[in-house]
Every structure is written in C-alpha cells, then in structure tokens.
Amino acid sequence: MCVCLSGGLNSWRNGYTVRDDPPEYEQAPAMEFRLTYEGPLKGASQGNTRAKHKHEIRKYFHPQLKRLWETHPLLKGKKRDGPGIEPDSYIEYLAKRFPLGPYNFVPLVNDEMKMTCGVDILFLRPDAPGEVIQSGDIDNRLKTLFDTFSRPTDMANLGGYDEPDETEKPFFCLVADDSLISRVSIDTDMLLEPVDGTYDQSMARLIISVTVSPYITTWENNGF
C-alpha cells in the first residue's frame, strides 16, 4: 500500500495514489478502457450509507460496461469452456453465479478469472484549487465512488431499487469485490464547465481509466 500527495495548496491540480498493491510481478495490462460519470457525488455521512445514491451511480456505469462486453474483442462472445466444461456464455455463467434477489450481476473483474484492476481517476469538482488537501469531505465522496464499483451483496445496498429495469437483466458492474482493485490513483482539478447547469459543490465530472490484468494465468483468463 502506497499513499502519497503531490501539489502544494496553491496548485491548480492535485494528484495522489491511495492504493498501490500490485502483484509480485509486473505485467502489462490485458485490457484498458474508460468509464465516465457526471452528476452528484456525495460523501457518506455517519449513519447514512447513501445506498440509493450509490446504486444510481452503478446504474450510470451499467450501460457503459454492457457496451464494453458487447464490443471488446476479449469479451465479445466470450465462452466459459475448458477441459470437462460444457461451453457456455460467460455473461450467463457470471450472472448465475452472482445473484441477489431478482438481480443477476456480471462483475468484469472476479476471483474466478484471477484478475485485478487498477483505476486512475480524473476528478473535476467546483472546489477552489488546493481544497482537496484541506477538505476531508473529498475522501468521503471517493469512498462513495469506490463502493459503486462493486456489486451489492445485500438488498439494502440497492437503496430501494428492488427490481432491475428490463435493460438491467443482467446488471453489469466493474468488480465482484473491491479487494480486487489493486491500485487507485486520483488527479483532482477545478470544474470549469457546470454539470446539469450548476456548480453545486456536490457535482463532479469523472473520467476513470481502468486497467485489467491477470495475476495468475488460468484457463478462464487465457487470451487476456
């Protein structure tokens, strides 16, 4: 684990690594892509998990990850097969493996595929330059974001969205568990264009670069 800060209080940009826990050996990423988000990003206050807010951000990422599965050459039409395994759609296999009530989640990074991912986040917010270091609220907002990367494990985490939309069958998410995120790096900068016509302090525009790599070569991640 590595934690570092760069940029003084008068800097326009601030960057820091909040997690850096790579495998024992370095390996070029098998897949790189970007997720985007713009809208409210609120911190979790004590006694308030903001489950509804978090799931709404998951819903924002879902169609982007669905599109990734439909178009990326390593994912498009991927089958689960191997010695003694009947070939099957990998999406359907994961959806059956990660059910929650009426939901079936498809986490891109999961323990069976022996993959981890790193995320590099460009975080644009209306705060004045340097306030990322002074404000503890930014950490709570990032904790909210990290929770949205993972599949929910309890119906309470869905914040009242007890039924998936027709377009969310199955529901695509980034990771099965946040322990599979091996590295997190954040660059913050001042938001110069409003989100939804406002510079409200809760608003953010995010560009999230994701790198996915196997940490053990298996039949399931063969080709990555």
How would you describe the overall organization of this protein?
By secondary structure, the protein is α+β, with helices and mostly antiparallel strands. It has one domain (4-214). Helices cover 21% and strands 34% of the residues. The relative contact order is 0.28.
Keywords:
single chain, 224 residues, alpha+beta, six-stranded mixed beta sheet, three-stranded mixed beta sheet, 11 strands, 34% strand, globular, disordered N terminus
Question: What is shown here, in short?
Answer:
This protein is α+β, with helices and mostly antiparallel strands and 224 residues long. 21% of the residues lie in helices and 34% in strands.
